[in-house]
Amino acid sequence: MGSGGQLFWFYAVALLLVATMFVIVPLWKYHRSGESSRAQRERTNLFIFKERLAELERELAAGNLEASDFKELKEELERSLLSDVQTPQERVQDEDENTPWLSMSKLLPLGLLIVIIPASYGIYRTWGFQDELALAQLYDRTRASVNNPEEARDLVFSLGAIIEEDRENGWAWYFLAQNLVNLAQFPQASMALERAGEFLEEDGDRVVVLSQHAFLEYMLAEQQLTDKVQDIIDRTQRIDPNQLLILQILGMDAEQRADYQSAITYWRRMLQLTPPGSEAELLRGMIANAQQQLSASNRQDAVAGDGPQIDVEVSLAPGIDLPADTRVFVSALEVNGRGQPLAAELLTVGELPTTITLDNSDAVGPFNISSAEMIYVVATASSSGTANVQAGDYQSRTEGFAHSNQHAIIRVEIADQVQ
Fold first, then answer.
1. Residue ranges of domains in the chain, CATH in brackets
2. Among 65, 140, 173, 368, which residue's Cβ finds the most Cβ atoms within 10 Å?
3. For residues 416 and 380, what is the distance between their CA atoms, to the nearest angstrom?
4. Measured between alpha carbons, how far is 372 from 338 in angstroms, rounded to an integer?
C-alpha cells in the first residue's frame, strides 16, 4: 500500500476513535452523575432524620410528648430513613431494575457505534474513490519502474486484472501502455493507447493520449506520416491545434522531407508555447540548423538563376526588453519605390537573434525582389502585433543596395523606437 493509502486508513481510524468517544463519554458521565445524585440524596435524608429526631427529643423533655408517642414517632422516622437509604447491593439491584444497561437509551448509541464501522466501509467501497486511489498508486509505481523491467511486468499483470473487471477503464489502459513502453513492447503499447483514447472523456486527457499514440505509431512506421498517423494527428488537432508532441511530429516529418521552411514554422510555434529553459534552447538550435539548411538550398537555387537570395541576420539591440511573443516583421522594399514590401517574413522576439532568407517566394503582392534593382531591408518589433508601424514600436533599416539577382548577406539590429 502506498503512502496515500496508509494516510487514509490512519485518518479513518483516528476519526473512528473520536466518534467512539462521543458515545462512550456521555454514557460514562450519565452513570457517574446518577451515583453522585443518589449519594447526595442519602446525605440529605440522614440530615433530615437527625433534625427531626432532635426535635422529638426536645418535645419529650418539655413534657409536650408522651414516651409512648415518642417511641412510635421515632420508629416511624427510622423506617422512613431505611426505605431511602439502602445497602450498596440493594442500590445496584434497584438500578438494574429501573435503568438496565440493555435499556433503549443505552443500547441505541452502542448499537449505532457498532453499525457505523461496517456501514462506513461499505459506503466508501460503493461511492468512494478506492479504485482511483489504487490507480494512483499504480501510476506512482509506473513512474518508478522506467528502468525496472521486473516491476513493469508486475504492473502489467496488476493493470490487466483491473481491465478484466472494467474494460472501459481508460486510465488503466493508459498506465498499461506506459509499462508496455518500458518493456519495449511498442505495438501492444500502441493498442493500449488506442483503447485509452476511446474511453477517456475529458478533452485535456484525450489530447495527451492521442498525441502519444500518434508519436508511437509514427515511430513504428519508421518515421513515415502514414494515413493512420495522419488520422490520429487530425483528431488531436481538432481538440488542440497547438499540442506540442503533434507539432514535433510534423516538424520532424517536414525536416525529413527537406521542407525546412515548414519545419521552421512548426518549431517556431512550439517555441512560443515552451517556457524558457533547456527545451526552448534546443528548439532554437533546431530552428537555426533548419535555417542554415534552407539558406544553403536557396543559394543553390540562386546559382541556378532562380532569383536573388538575401540572408538577413536579425537581432535586438542590447538594453531593449520586449516580451518574447512580440512579433517581428522583416521586409524587403524597393528604394524610392511604392512602399509596399517585395518580400516579408514573420518572427518573434523570442527567436532573436536569428538568420532568415528573403527571396522571390516570400513575395506578399504582385511584385517580388527581382522586380527592383535597388532594395533595402526593414525589421520592426511591433507592440500591436500588426505590420502597421505605430508609435512605441522598435524599428531599424539598412542602406539601399543592388541585389543583382545574387546571394547577399546583411545584418539588421533593431534599436530605434518609433516616435
1. 3-127 (no CATH), 148-288 (1.25.40.10), 308-417 (2.60.40.1120)
2. 173
3. 9
4. 11
